[in-house]
Amino acid sequence: MNTPTRQRRTRAAAPAGPDARGTELELEVGPVAHGGHCVARHEGRVVFVRHALPGERVVARVTEGAEGAKFWRADAVRVLQADEARVEPPCPVARPGLCGGCDFQHATPAKQRELKASVVAEQFHRLADLDLDVTVEEVPHERADGLRWRTRTQFAVDAEGRTGLRKHRSHEVVPLADCPISTEPVVGSGVLEARFGNVETVEVAAGSDGAAPLVVVTPDGDRHAHLPKLPDASVAVRTADGLHRVSGRTWVGERITVGGRDHAFRVGGAGFWQVHPAAPAVLGETVLAALQVQPGESALDLYSGVGLFTALLADAVGQDGSVLAVEGDERAVRDARKSLHEQRHVELWAGAVEEALADDELTGRRTDVVVLDPPRTGAGRTVVAGIAALAPRAIAYVACDPAALARDTAFLAGHGYVLDGLRAFDLFPHTHHVECVATFVRG
Ligand SMILES: C[S@@+](CC[C@H](N)C(=O)[O-])C[C@H]1O[C@@H](n2cnc3c(N)ncnc32)[C@H](O)[C@@H]1O
Questions:
Q1: Which CATH class name applies to 1-83?
Q2: Residue 300 CA to chain centroid, in angstroms?
């Protein structure tokens, strides 16, 4: 007798032909993969399934499945056998075919961290040839349900001027009445009730200094943006020639306490700042603990933004030490200058990290420790080689993409730097994102 396959079509009329989109498949869901989906197989073909959990049996509707495609994408639309960690998504639009902002709302926060730990471990296994026992740590927050943490949210605007978020892998905007992962000040800014005209994106940033959130509007092309009244927010318009104030401040104020010391930062426009309120202190403390920075040492902070790690390193090395920070966004460097102007032992360079690492002024100096916090693409081969050439005694790598981190770990190994520690934090609950801090020393 043939063993009946569990992966069979449930709709007799499902198209077998060129385009599988819309076809419903019954699938046995396999392991989680990087990107917010799980892996299943249908007749030998890989199907990436969203809204599912490993081990579940689901009916999934194919969302991408062109003829000859190596793999398909699908959304689990019915759950036949649920994992015990499955929950009702707290947001009404965190469902198949609706908002693409969150990936894991259908799992308990603990299960989400387990999924992310698997992904981090898998990336290190695949790309760095390292088998690691990874734990993704919960970070301090007033809520255990993983909601109301996002202090920065970029909303898209639909043809009717309503704000929302885009569908997964689509330009289509799902208008929102609320975004439960965004903080109260972000959703309370008024942008979700307002109507915009000729606007592409509306970014809201709420600082920790308690001031009104900043709304930065980007017009759609060269057209003149029509703005609603937002009495509970500061408003600015971003065009190709810069940021233009409409009302209130054009920057956001941030305050953190690390190691008993208070630090204040200014973040212009909707410039980069860690989005989870716990992130600056958690990452700052982790980096300092990883590097064990000593007074008098020379530190290098690459991709330094408005100077979060620069300020902490400046404290740790003291007046007898030095910190050099390199950041590509000139506005962020200007902000860092405002926050750090009293720190005479701190130098801020505006420019590409790649160029700074090739500059004789840097290569000729002593560098004891390096912090790098690159964008999602990671540092890459050239930057890794440049850092290794400085021969620091320790490197702390802050990474928002575990794949890029694992790839760069392999590059670092090629230069004799071994992974000495890895911590992973759930700084983006309900999404598939995870933040890691990896420490490297010379092997
Ligand atoms: C993930 S953010 C980190 C910022 C900062 N470390 C923090 O935690 O607030 C990455 C930063 O790298 C900057 N950046 C991106 N590519 C760069 C490059 N090639 N050279 C210099 N800076 C770059 C971005 O402008 C951004 O400020």
A1: mainly beta
A2: 23
For residue 318, the Cα-to-chain-centroid distance in whole angstroms is 31
Residue boundaries of the structural domains of the chain: 1-83, 152-252, 254-442
Q: Which atom of ligand 1 is nearest to the CA of 272?
A: 27
Catalytic residue status for 400: yes
Q: Ligand 1: does its nearest atom lie under 6 Å from the Cβ of 282?
A: no
Q: Identify the residue whose C-alpha is closest to ligand 1 atom 27.
A: 305
Token pair 């100096």: residue: 365
Ligand 1 site, residue 274, Cβ cutoff 6 A: yes
| Beta strands 417-425 and 136-137, pairing class | parallel
Cα(41) to ligand 1 centroid in Å equals 39
- Do residues 340 and 307 make contact, with C-beta atoms less than 8 angstroms apart? yes
For domain 254-442, say whether CATH 3.40.50.150 is its number.
yes
Q: Where are the alpha helices (DSSP H) in 292-329?
A: 308-317
Q: What are the structure tokens assigned to 424, written together?
A: 């992973």
Burial class (CB in 10 A: 0-12, 13-18, 19+), 28: middle
Asked if residues 294 and 247 have their Cβ atoms less than 8 Å apart, the reply is no
Query: In sequence order, which residues have a C-beta less than 8 Å from that of residue 243 and are 6 or more positions away?
Result: 216, 236, 237, 250, 268, 269
User: What is the end-to-end Cα distance of the chain in Å, rounded?
Assistant: 57
Verify whether ligand 1 is closer than 6 Å to residue 157 (CB atom): no
Along the 443 residues of the chain, how does pLDDT read in single tens digits?
A: 333 333 444 443 344 456 899 999 999 999 999 999 999 999 999 999 999 999 999 999 999 998 888 899 999 999 999 999 999 999 999 999 999 999 999 999 999 999 999 999 999 999 999 999 999 999 999 899 999 999 999 999 999 999 999 999 999 999 999 999 999 999 999 999 999 999 999 999 999 999 999 999 999 988 899 999 999 999 999 999 899 999 999 999 999 999 999 999 999 997 899 999 999 999 999 999 999 999 999 999 999 999 999 999 999 999 999 999 999 999 999 999 999 989 999 999 999 999 999 999 999 999 999 999 999 999 999 999 999 999 999 999 999 999 999 999 999 999 999 999 999 999 999 999 999 999 999 99
Question: Rg of the chain's alpha carbons, rounded to an integer?
Answer: 23
